Amino acid sequence: MIENPSTRGAVFPMAKRDAPIQRAGTGMPARCSARKAPRLVVSATAQMAPQPPRPGQIFCKKTQTALSLGLALALASGPVFATNTAMLQLLSALHKKGTIDDETYQAILLTARADEEQNTVVSAEVAKKVDQSLVQLGTPVLSPGKFEIKDKPGAFVWRTIGRVQYDNAFFDNNGSFKASDDNQFRRVRLGVMGTVATNWKFKVEYDLREVDTGIAGLKDAYIEYIGKLPGLDPIKHPTDIKIGQSYEPFSFELLNGSNNALCTERALPANALSSFLGERNPGLKVTTWGESWTAAAGLFGTRQQETITAVNCTLPTGANFKAGAKFTCSYGAEDTPPRAFNEGYASTVRGTYAPWHKAGHVLHLGSAFSYRDFANHNLLRLRDRMEVHETSIRLVDTGDFKADDFLRWNAELMVIEGSFTFQGEYLGLKAHAPSVQDPMFTGYYVSAGWFLTGESRPYKFQEGIFDSVTPSSIAGEGGIGAWEVVTRYSSTDLTDGLVQGGQENNWSFGLNWYPAPNIRFMADYSKVLEVKGGLFANSTPSALVLRSAVFW
C-alpha cells in the first residue's frame, strides 16, 4: 500500500498477490520473487520509507530494477533522448508515484546529463572537422540565379549552368509561304563553368536539343586565363584569353545571348550573314579593356558541325564510312547539302567605346571586321527564316556558290537611358567569288524596348553586350515582376551580281514579362512586310511566337 502525502493515512491498493505476470514469449505465468516487499509510505516531506509487509502484497523487485535500467539506458543513450521532453516527463511521473526511488531517479538524471554534455562536446568537434573539410573541398553557395561550390578564398569555383526555352508558333500564311503551327523546345542546355585557380577559368555547355546531330550540340567549350599583356597595366587593362570554342567577336546581336535578347529570335541580317558559319567557332581569342573601351581579336577555325553529313546519305557498296568518303544524299528544305569541306581559317577583331556606362545610362559604339579564307573553293550559302524558328522555310536564300574567301563588317549603336533601350546595327559581307561576280550582301536593323514597370536593362561593359534583367518586384510575393514592350524593324538584301537570293523587310512587336529573376515569358508578333525576288517573292506571312524560358 502507498500513502499519498496530500492525504496522510489514505491507502491505495497495490498489485494483487495472485495476479499472474506473463513471461515474454512463452505465455506462461512468471512469479516475482517470493520475498515480501515492504509497504511504501510517502511522508509529508515526500520521502519514501519501508513499512512492514501486508498479506496479499508482493514487491516485484526484478520488474522495478528492469524498468529503472531501461529508463537509464534510454535517457543516457544520447542527447536526442536526454533532451526528449516526453521521456523526462515519464521519468518524473514514475518517481512521483513511487515506482522509482530518489536514489535511482537522481542516478538516472546524472547519467543522462553527463552523457549529454559529452555528446555535445563530441558534436562540436565533429562539426569543426566537417567545417574544415568543407573549406578544403568547397562549400555550396547560393546567390541570386546561380548555384556554386567554392572555397573561402574563391580560388576554386564550380557552377552549374543551363537554360530551357519552349516555343509555340502560330502562322498566318500568305502567297507561296505555307507553314504549319508548331511547338518545340528551342533550347535545352546544360553545362558547367568555374575557376580552378585564381586566374584560370573554364566553361563547357551542351545543347541537348541538338543531340541528334552529334557535335552540333556543343556550344561553349574553352579554357580561360585572366591576367595581363606585356606593356599593359594589369589593373587598368586586364586581359582575357580564351582557348577553345567560343563566340567570334563579331556583331552585338550575335554576341548577345538568347537569355538577354529583346526578341525571341535574332534580327534578319545578323542570322543571314552568319548562318553558314554560326556565331561560335574553335580558336584563340584575346580581349582587353580600359576605362571606356574594349578590344578583342581572335584566330578561328570552323565549328565542327560545319563538316556536314546530310540526312539520308548512302555510301557506295563496300565503302567504309570515313572522312572524305564519297556518298550521295537526298535532302529536304531544312537539310544542308553535302560539301567537301576544308575549314580554312578566320581572323576577327572587334572594338567598342562607351563614353559613359553607368547603371541606367549607357552609350555604346562598336565595330567589327572578320576575314575568312576558304582553303578549297568551298561552297557558300547565306539564308534566313522570317525571324521565326518553327519553320524550315527561308524566304531569302542565295543557294550554293563557290567562294575563295569573304570579308564581313558591322557598325553598332546601343543606348540605355532609364527604362528605354535602343539597339541598331548595320552589317555587310563581300565574297570573293569570281563565278558569280563577287557579290556583296548587306542588312540592318533597329530595335527598341521600354520597361513599363521602371526597370533599366543592365549592360556588361567588358563584353559590350546586355546583362540579364532583374525585376524590381517578384510576382507572387506582392509584386508583378518586370514588364517590357519591344519593337524591331529589320532588312536584308541577298541579291547582287549573279546571285538572286532576294530581299526581305520585317517588322516585329513584342511583350516580355520577367516574373522573377531568371524566368521570362515572351510574346512576339512578326510580320513580313515585303519580299523581292527569290522563290517567295511577294509573300507576306506573319507569325505569333510564345516563349517560356528559364535559365540558371
Report the structural category. Answer: mainly beta
What strand line-up does the widest sheet have? 9-10-11-12-13-14-15-18-19-24-25-26-29-30-31-32
The overall number of domains is 3
CATH fold name of the largest domain: Porin
Measured on Cα atoms, how large is the radius of gyration?
39 Å
Distance between the termini: 74 Å
Descriptive key words:
4-stranded mixed sheet; 552 residues; single chain; Porin; mainly beta
Model description:
- The chain is mainly beta and 552 residues long.
- It folds into three domains: 2-125, no CATH class; 139-307 and 343-551, Porin (Beta Barrel), CATH 2.40.160.10; 308-342, no CATH class.
- 14% of the residues lie in helices and 44% in strands.
- The strands form seven sheets. Strands 9-10-11-12-13-14-15-18-19-24-25-26-29-30-31-32 form a 16-stranded antiparallel barrel. Strands 2-1-5-6 form a four-stranded mixed beta sheet, with no helix packed on it.
- Helix 1 packs parallel to helix 4.
- The longest helix is centred in the N-terminal third of the chain and has 36 residues, at 102-137.
- The radius of gyration is 39 Å and the shape is elongated.
- The two termini are 74 Å apart.
Topology, element by element:
Blueprint: E1 2-3, E2 11-12, E3 21-22, E4 29-30, E5 39-42, E6 48-51, H1 61-76, H2 79-82, H3 85-97, H4 102-137, E7 139-143, E8 146-150, E9 157-172, E10 182-197, E11 200-207, E12 218-227, E13 239-247, H5 252-255, H6 268-272, E14 280-289, E15 293-300, E16 313-314, E17 328-329, E18 345-358, E19 361-373, E20 379-380, E21 383-384, E22 396-397, E23 401-402, E24 405-417, E25 420-432, E26 440-451, E27 459-460, E28 465-466, E29 482-496, E30 499-516, E31 519-532, E32 542-551
Parallel strand pairs: 1-5
Antiparallel strand pairs: 1-2, 3-4, 5-6, 7-8, 8-9, 9-10, 9-32, 10-11, 11-12, 12-13, 13-14, 14-15, 15-18, 16-17, 18-19, 19-24, 20-23, 21-22, 24-25, 25-26, 26-29, 27-28, 29-30, 30-31, 31-32
Helix pairs in contact: 1-4
